[in-house]
Amino acid sequence: MGRWFNYFIIKILKNLFAALFALLLPVLASAQFSISGKVTNQAGDGLPGATISLTGSSLSAITNSDGIYQLKGLQPETYVLKASYVGYSTITKTVTIRNDKTVNFLLQAATFTTEEVSVNATRASKNSPTAYTNLSKKDLEKNNFGQDLPYLLDQTPSVVVSSDGGTGIGYTGIRIRGSDATRVNVTINGIPYNDSESQGSYFVDLPDIASTINNIQVQRGVGTSTNGAGAFGGSINIQTTTRRDTAYADISNSAGSYGTVKNTINLGTGLLGDHFSIDGRLSRIRSDGYIDRASSHLKSFFVSGAYYGKNSTLRANIFSGYERTYQAWNGIPDYIISDKSIPNHRRYNELGILPDGSYYPDQVDDYLQSHYQLLYDQKLSDKLAFSGALHYTKGKGYYEEFKADADVEDYGLTPVVIGGTAITNTDLARRRWLDNDFYGITYALKYTPDKTLNFTLGGAYNEYKGAHFGNIIYTKESAGIGPNYEYYRDDAKKNDFNTFVRGEYRSDNVLVYADMQYRHVYYSFLGYDRNLNNVQQNSSLNFFNPKVGITYELNERNNIYASFAVGNHEPNRDDYTNSTPQSRPKAENLKDFEAGYRTSGSVFRGGINLFYMLYKNQLILTGQLNDVGSQIRQNVKDSYRAGIEFDGALKISRSLLWAANATLSTNKIKNYRQFLINYDDNSVVEQDFDKTNIAYSPSFIASSTVSYSPIKGGEIAFISKYVGKQYLDNTSNTNPTEYPVVGNSSFIVNRQLDAYFVNNIRMRYDFSIKGIKKIGLGLLINNIFSQEYEANGASYPDIEGGQVVNYNYYFPQATRNFLASVTLSF
C-alpha cells in the first residue's frame, strides 16, 4: 500500500512540477547534453570546491564534497574545459560531445598553496576512521531559505533540531547523538566558535552564515577536532568562502509564512591579476515567529580579501551578526498547550506580560557579535606546509525584561520611605549585559615525507574576557536609584591552550591514524567560597585526549574502520559560579569506540557505523540543591550511549535519488539519583533508579529525502524526519501527574516529548537567460501534513500536597508553512 501511495504521490508531483514550469518557460532547449566527472589529487582523494569552466563561456561548475561536478545544457560541439583548484596546477582538456560524457581530472600539487591546511587540521579525511558527513555549498544552497544553520543540518545522521520561535529562525538548537550544543565543538576556518563560558554555540548571532559557507563537515563522537572545547557528541567544522576564479554577483530574496523575509547580496571579484580576490555578503532576515511575539530582526555582513602567492596564501575575513529577538525561550506551559479553550493555546507566550494584561514591547535579546580572522598558509617545501591564524571576536549585548512587583532588596537596595510607606517592592525593567572579547592564535605544521606518511603538529592559544553586569533602567515607583543603576557585576577570564601531534600512515590498503592532544584550561570567575562569600577565584584543568584508529580498504570503493578516542570536557560557567569549591562538579570524561563500513559506487553510496560512548562523571541536572541553595548540574559516575547509524544514497534512476539515514541507540545512566523538593515541609526526597534513560536522547532517529528531477534544472524533493520519544529529565517518566483543565476533564502530564514524524516538500528550478547566468526559483513547504508537535522542552518536578507535581514547558513547532525564494546570479 505504502509503495503504491508513494508512486502516485511522486507521479502527481512530477506532473504538477512539469506543468508549472512548462507554463513559466514554454521554450526548452533541445539536443542538450552534459559533461560530468570527478576532480582528484594524486592520492585519489576528491577535491571539493574545485572549479570546472568552459573557456570562452560564463558556464562553470563547482565540485561537491566528493570532488564531483556536472555541466548541463551543452550543445553537441567541441569544448575546452579548464579545471582549477587552489594549491594545484590548472589543466585543460579539449572534449567533443555528441552525447553525455564523463571527463575526470587529476590535478598535481603546484603553483599556489592551499587554504585547506588550517581547516584540515580539525577534519576527517576521506578514509579516516571517523563517522562524518560532508556538505558542499550546493547542498546548503538547496535548503537555504533563511532558517538558521542547524535546520540546514537536520538531514544529517543522529541530528535533532529545535526552534524557540517554532520556525527555525532566531534562537535554534541542535543535538547530535543526544548531546546538546554545549558538547558539540564548532569551528569556523579552524577557529573555535563555542562560547568560552557557557560552551554553547548561538547560531542566531551568525544570521545567514550559510550564504558564506563553502563546505561543512559534521562529525559524530569525539572525532578529530583539536581546537576549542572538547567534542562530546559531535563537531561542526565550517569553511567559509574560498577562491573563485571568475567574478560573480548573486541577489537572493525569500519570503513566506509568519512575516518571514530574507534578503541577501553576494559579490566577488574573482581572481584579479592572478593574485587577489575580494568577496562580500550583506544579509537581512525578519520573522514574526510561530509563537506569539517570537519575532527576530537579524542583520549580518561578510567581507573577505585574499592574496595568492606562488607558495603562500593570505586571507582576511571580517564578518558580523546582529540579532534582536523577542524572548520565547521559556516555552509554553503544558496546561496551556493542552487547554483548547484558550485561544491560540499552542502559540501563547507569557513572557513580558504587564499587570494590565498588555505586553512589554522590549522583552528582547539584543546582541552584536563581530569576528576578525587573518589566515595564512605557506608551502615551505614539497614536503612541508604551514598554516596559522590570528582571530578576534567582539560581542556585546543584553537581554531586557520586565519584572512585576520585584523585591528591591534582591537588587542590593534599601527600601525607601515615601509618604510614610516603605517601598519594598516595585515593578521594574532590567537589562543583563554581556560584554566579551575572545582572541588568540591557531597553527598547524604538516609534514609529508612521502605518499605513505604524514604528520601534523598544531595547537592554539586563546584568551577570553567577559564582563557580566546588570542595570535597572526603569522603576514604577522611586526606589532611590539613578538611571542605569548597576546591581551586579562579574568579570571572568579564561585561558585555553592546546597542542597536538597527529600522524597517518598509508600502505596499499591500510591507513593507521594516531592523535595526541594536551589541553590546559584556566578560568577566573566570581563565585562562592567555602564561607559563602562571593569572591573572585579560579580553577585550572589539564586534559590529555588521545585518539587512534585504523581503516582497511577492501577495494577502491569499500573500506572498514575502527577507532578509539578520549575526550574531556570542563564544567560551564553556571557550574562554577553557583557552587563552592567543596560542591563544585568535576570535569567530564568520555571514551568513544567507533567501528564501521563505508561503500561508494555509481548507484549506491553509504555506510554503517557502530558507536559506544562511555561517560565518567557526565554532568546532568538531578534536582539536588548544593551548599549555596542552587539546583545545578551534578556528576553521575556511569552512563553510556550505544547504537548503530546508517546513511546512504541510492540512485534509482537517472532522475530519481533516495537518500536516507537512521540511528538506533540506547542511552542510559546507571545507579541514578533524582532529588525532589518537598514544599510541604521544605525537605528533599530522593528517588533511586538502577538504570534509566538519558534526557533528550531519542532511541530512534530517521531521515529521508526522495529527490526527483523531471526536467533539466528542476527538482522536487520529499523530505521526511522521524524523531522518537524523548524524556525531559533522567527519570524515564515514572511519575505522571493528572491535572484538571477548564473545558476538559483532565489530562496526564508526563515528563516526555512525544515522537513526531514531519514531512516537507522542496521544489527548485534553475535556468538562465541572456545576461543572467542563473535564475533560481525555490519553494519550501514545511510540515505539509500540519502535524502538531514539540521538539524541545523542560521539566521542573517537585512535591506539593503529598504528590509529585510536574511543571513542564514545551516548544511547539510551526504547523504547515512555506518559504519561497528567487535568486539571480550574474
TrEMBL record:
Belongs to the TonB-dependent receptor family. Residues 126-234 form the TonB-dependent receptor plug domain. It is found in: Cell outer membrane. Keywords: Cell outer membrane, Ion transport, Iron, Iron transport, Membrane, Receptor, Signal, TonB box, Transmembrane, Transmembrane beta strand, Transport. It comes from Mucilaginibacter segetis. Pfam families: CarbopepD_reg_2 (PF13715), Plug (PF07715), TonB_dep_Rec_b-barrel (PF00593). Residues 312-784 form the TonB-dependent receptor-like beta-barrel domain. Residues 1-31 form the signal peptide. One of its GO terms (cellular component) is cell outer membrane. It is a multi-pass membrane protein. This is TonB-dependent receptor. Residues 571-590 are annotated as: Disordered. GO terms for molecular function: siderophore uptake transmembrane transporter activity.
